[in-house]
Specification:
5 helices, 105 residues, mainly alpha, two-stranded antiparallel ribbon, 58% helix
Length: 105
Amino acid sequence: MPEPSPELIDDLVKTIGLSPSRVGIVRITYQHGHVTAGQLMEQLGIARSTLTHHIQPLVDAGILVAEADPSRAGTASGYNRILWRVDQDALQQLLRNVAHALTGE
Protein backbone atom coordinates (compact mmCIF):
# COMPACT_ATOMS: atom_id res chain seq x y z
CA MET A 1 0.00 0.00 0.00
CA PRO A 2 1.53 3.36 -0.98
CA GLU A 3 2.33 5.97 1.65
CA PRO A 4 -0.48 8.58 1.87
CA SER A 5 0.46 12.06 0.71
CA PRO A 6 1.00 14.81 3.29
CA GLU A 7 -2.03 16.61 1.84
CA LEU A 8 -4.24 13.57 2.37
CA ILE A 9 -3.05 13.24 5.96
CA ASP A 10 -3.66 16.96 6.59
CA ASP A 11 -7.18 16.64 5.17
CA LEU A 12 -7.88 13.61 7.38
CA VAL A 13 -6.58 15.39 10.46
CA LYS A 14 -8.81 18.41 9.79
CA THR A 15 -11.84 16.24 8.95
CA ILE A 16 -11.62 14.33 12.23
CA GLY A 17 -10.97 17.57 14.12
CA LEU A 18 -7.47 16.84 15.37
CA SER A 19 -5.11 19.70 16.03
CA PRO A 20 -2.57 19.96 13.20
CA SER A 21 -0.05 21.30 15.72
CA ARG A 22 -0.47 18.28 18.00
CA VAL A 23 -0.27 15.90 15.08
CA GLY A 24 2.92 17.67 14.00
CA ILE A 25 4.41 17.43 17.49
CA VAL A 26 3.73 13.69 17.65
CA ARG A 27 4.92 13.09 14.08
CA ILE A 28 8.18 15.00 14.47
CA THR A 29 8.92 13.50 17.88
CA TYR A 30 8.11 9.98 16.67
CA GLN A 31 10.32 10.35 13.60
CA HIS A 32 13.30 11.75 15.50
CA GLY A 33 13.05 9.66 18.66
CA HIS A 34 13.83 12.58 20.97
CA VAL A 35 13.36 16.30 20.34
CA THR A 36 13.77 19.54 22.23
CA ALA A 37 11.19 22.29 22.49
CA GLY A 38 13.43 24.42 20.28
CA GLN A 39 13.44 21.78 17.54
CA LEU A 40 9.66 21.50 17.66
CA MET A 41 9.17 25.27 17.58
CA GLU A 42 11.52 25.60 14.63
CA GLN A 43 10.05 22.76 12.59
CA LEU A 44 6.43 23.72 13.30
CA GLY A 45 6.96 27.48 13.13
CA ILE A 46 5.17 28.07 16.43
CA ALA A 47 5.94 30.10 19.56
CA ARG A 48 6.89 28.58 22.92
CA SER A 49 3.50 29.50 24.43
CA THR A 50 1.71 27.71 21.60
CA LEU A 51 3.96 24.69 21.96
CA THR A 52 3.31 24.54 25.70
CA HIS A 53 -0.44 24.76 25.09
CA HIS A 54 -0.29 21.76 22.74
CA ILE A 55 2.27 19.65 24.60
CA GLN A 56 0.44 19.51 27.93
CA PRO A 57 -2.58 17.51 26.68
CA LEU A 58 -0.21 15.10 24.93
CA VAL A 59 1.70 14.63 28.19
CA ASP A 60 -1.56 14.23 30.14
CA ALA A 61 -2.65 11.53 27.67
CA GLY A 62 0.66 9.71 28.16
CA ILE A 63 1.67 10.09 24.50
CA LEU A 64 4.59 12.44 25.13
CA VAL A 65 7.11 11.76 27.84
CA ALA A 66 9.57 14.35 29.14
CA GLU A 67 13.09 13.25 29.97
CA ALA A 68 16.04 15.23 31.26
CA ASP A 69 18.56 16.12 28.55
CA PRO A 70 21.91 15.07 30.03
CA SER A 71 23.76 17.33 27.60
CA ARG A 72 22.04 20.40 29.07
CA ALA A 73 22.51 19.77 32.77
CA GLY A 74 22.83 23.08 34.57
CA THR A 75 21.08 25.12 31.86
CA ALA A 76 19.11 27.95 33.48
CA SER A 77 15.79 27.39 31.72
CA GLY A 78 14.11 24.15 32.73
CA TYR A 79 12.16 23.84 29.49
CA ASN A 80 15.42 23.83 27.54
CA ARG A 81 16.65 20.86 29.55
CA ILE A 82 13.89 18.53 28.40
CA LEU A 83 13.89 15.96 25.65
CA TRP A 84 10.49 14.82 24.48
CA ARG A 85 9.80 11.30 23.24
CA VAL A 86 6.68 9.43 22.15
CA ASP A 87 5.49 6.55 24.30
CA GLN A 88 4.77 4.19 21.42
CA ASP A 89 2.57 1.87 23.50
CA ALA A 90 0.37 4.76 24.65
CA LEU A 91 0.16 6.09 21.08
CA GLN A 92 -0.84 2.69 19.70
CA GLN A 93 -3.51 2.30 22.39
CA LEU A 94 -4.90 5.75 21.58
CA LEU A 95 -5.01 4.91 17.88
CA ARG A 96 -6.86 1.67 18.63
CA ASN A 97 -9.34 3.62 20.75
CA VAL A 98 -9.88 6.16 17.97
CA ALA A 99 -10.41 3.39 15.41
CA HIS A 100 -12.88 1.70 17.75
CA ALA A 101 -14.73 4.97 18.36
CA LEU A 102 -14.99 5.59 14.61
CA THR A 103 -15.94 2.08 13.54
CA GLY A 104 -17.46 0.44 16.59
CA GLU A 105 -15.15 -2.55 16.03
